[in-house]
Design a protein that fits this description.
With about 60 residues, the chain is mainly beta. Helix content is about 10%, strand content about 40%. It starts with 9 loop residues before the first strand and ends with a strand.
Length: about 60
């Protein structure tokens, strides 16, 4: 489980998406978290608690 994340971070999820990819980019942060699959481009919105449980680790931090 990850502890902190920011907009634009690339995150590896515990389970792969239906397309076979497990890397996602964070596109919205708030009470809900919107993530975009880097394989097929599908956008999914999760509540913050579900996202924190499903995320494995941050692969790449967004640079400012």
């Amino acid at each position: 489980m990850i502890e902190s994340f920011a907009l634009g971070d690339t995150v590896r999820m515990k389970k792969p998406h239906a397309c076979g990819n497990d890397l996602w980019t964070v596109t919205r942060v708030g009470a809900d978290v919107k993530i975009k699959c880097l394989g097929c481009g599908r956008v999914v919105m999760l509540d913050r608690l579900a996202f924190l449980k499903a995320a494995k680790k941050i692969v790449e931090k967004e640079t400012e």
